[in-house]
Amino acid sequence: MIAPRFSFVGSGRPRVDAGDQVSGRTVFADDMSLPGMLIGRQLRSPHGHARITRIDVRRALALEGVEAVITGADLPITYGILPVSQDEHALALERVRYVGEPVAAVAAVDAETAARGLELIEVEYEPIEETASIDEAATDRVLIHGEGLGRNVHRAASLEFGDVATGFEEADHIREDVYDFRGSTHAALEQHAAVASFGTDGRLTIWSSTQVPHYLHRALEKVLELPAAQIRVVATPVGGGFGGKTDPFSHEIVAARLSMKTGRPVKITLSREEVFYTHRGRHPVLMWVRTGFRRDGTITAMHFRTHLDGGAFGSYGLATLYYTGALQTTTYRIPHYKFEGVRVFTNKPPCGPKRGHGTPQPRFALECHLDAAAADLGLDPVTIRVRNLVEPYSTTVNYLRITSCGLRECIEKVVAASGFGDKHGKLPPGRGVGLAVSAYMTGAGLPIYFNDMPQSEVSIKVDRGGGVTVFSMAADVGQGSTSVLATIVGEVLGLDPATLAMVTADTDLTPVDLGSYSSRVTFMAGNAALEAAERIRDTVVAAVADELGTTRDVLVVGDGRVGVEGAPEKSIPWPDAVRAAISRTGPLAASGSYTAPTLAGPYKGSGVGISPAYSFSAAVVEVECDAETGHVRVERVWLAHDIGRALNSLLVEGQIEGGVYMGLGEALMEEQAYRGTLHRGPSLLDYKMPTFLDVPPVESILVETVDPEGPFGAKEVGQGPLLPVIPAVANAIHDALGVRIDEVPITPDKVVRAMRDLARGGSGRVGPASVPEFDFGRANRVAVPEGLRP
Amino acid sequence: MIDRILTLSVNGREHRVLTPDHRTLLELLREDLRLTGTKHGCELGECGACTVLLDGTPVLSCLTLARSAEGHAVTTVEGLAAGGVPAPLQDAFTRLGAAQCGYCTPGMLMAASALLNSVLDPSTAEIQEALSGNLCRCTGYGKIVAAVRLAARSGR
Predict the structure, then answer these.
(1) Best mutation site among B26, B80, B137 for testing chain A: the one with the most A CBs within 10 Å?
(2) Is the Cβ of A686 closer than 8 Å to some Cβ of chain B?
(3) What is the pTM of this model?
């Protein structure tokens, strides 16, 4: 096959919006100011669990400068990101369920008056029994949702693919391990902010730092009881998302209600402390895994259990629950697989999706478990993985369709680049290397709410001067989605991507894209943009063929011209070509769309984990550990990623480096920690995250497998590269010190405890002893896919 | 609340502003002067997003009282490009992808600019040290270090 030649695809080009970013001209939500704008603030619960017995806003309303005060009674309709979890109120009604839950809100002429207004709101609470942990939720306590006593279970799942009992019988060696992944949070640098303006025409406009303008649009329609046609949602440039801005939020709904009440624009910007309470971050997950192996390391069966601490509300939690069991099979062939999981409610800020959504936790467990099993069997970490590798173009036991897959090449490349074979088990004491691999979805196969409309639509309009405007609802959250769409359209039309006008993330102006989550934009919006651009190109080419008196098949589009390749006299500039097209066929506009193929398997829960393509990653981490202080210093990270095709290598590297960074933070220091139900330190000083001084050099290796369904073959990179980093760190620490820290984050105190245990003749393991008892009931037995049957 | 008229030099221009006595420099820049290029991520001096220069020295504008900036030259990200031509530092950030979401970028640029004003060709370690008070959640910092190095070599 001759490699295609590209004008723009592949090369490392600057973002199309970089000029504004480096000059301070990017307008984030809090940078906005409208005439007559009020400032809104929210009063938050000081209790983890309490009934609201009295709420009196009269003194606040009487304060000069306070224009409106609202409480739960003003917003009685529930909402939630998932149709099955409509359990949130924008302001608590009757009951508060976590410290920091919004209870009332004020709109005032300025921030100080709003803050004084909050102080004048009188709320009386009657505290009730709190549930603070997975263990507590496993016993009968006061229900967080509903009345009376019971276990605070949100949802449980039990699925068995094939027959694990048979699989375990075939095993020569069975290993069981227990792991704990403590939760973390996104801590995007930009605090959430929204500006709402209810106009005299009865239309509401909201500008918000959201990753999901379309879903926010739907939530506002429901809660405010306004027709969707009268609501305009504009996603402002998002100053870091990582999944933390993918729910509809209280402050967005409250700003809108306050604007409707006052007839003036209202801005609400969360303080950093409020961002920690808003959370929706990584679920704490307790895990138990049992795997059967043949002597040569081949997996015969796996049984995986997860216990998720969901916090006080549903959020994406039902999906998260299934994600903790879905993707184990996408890296390794597991002939018989059983997954049991339960998500509980606790009186803490709600957990939700953070980069990797429900899969970094089990990936940490699985990759550490495999290393431990390899040691049992006398195998090295590379061999046990390669022996079980999933094959390209195959189906997993839980019905996930794998297409392009460069996992083997990823492993080979990181192992070679890092010298893993020469280092593992051979470095001086205190130094070690760890390997781990992973896979991630390139876009969720299904939308969040059931519908059979496209998951992404893109429109393109061409001006008589040749100017191309691209319309897409995809929100740029820093990943560079706008630049990626520009690259795709520019490539097809032969125009420099930097010269295209990009109109994005505005429900009045742009056709629907479901949002910037689940690593879906490059693939889904990208394919929609590709289709739209090809339609424009075809119309223009037909017109030029007519103009030049030639046939379409000899014409090419490129370098700002349309014509016969290699014959400049038979080619015309793009603007002339556009005018030729408009003269012949009228306005030059086209739309394209993308809908994922039907992929769900024959079982309930199969909607989670399916994707039109999977990315694959392999990481090697080298560490130097101080056995006495427990301090772990990461020396270097090698990360190979199967990107399908890099549309912009600079952006791809940026996502890899950012994913590695975030993975290192989670591995070694980041924890959304509580004392009971009270956040231990809702500030950027107390929430430890890596600084310039904590980050090692990262060697990114791109593996291109050219996915048959991706735009130009591209797959995702926003989330996948984070996944292998955390277990690779844990495995490297084991290689360095001989201790197993089966609990993330791996803080120095845990390393010291493990070293002391080792010195006393113990196993040198720190981690949970067991998972709570829970009756998952009878598993839903699912026959293995036909091709995999013996 | 006492209002006071402050006279401040920002990006080479004198501004007279009637503003509350307890106004921080961050608030004054963003709200009174509408220079929203300077960001905030915590307003407690933890993240570095609000870094501006005071007589060439990087300060956290969220912890600086506006009135204490009187008589000093304040430089913000809006003042980096001379005559609309991007400074080498801005150009390097663009070319090397040192900005992803772009939210920490103004603070990074100001801290880096102060470093390059005092050290001609800083080492990687010097750059990491100088910028260690500025948090970024997107990039993993590597491309920011590379951009500062490139800017240093291309004459700031």
Answers:
(1) B137
(2) no
(3) 0.98
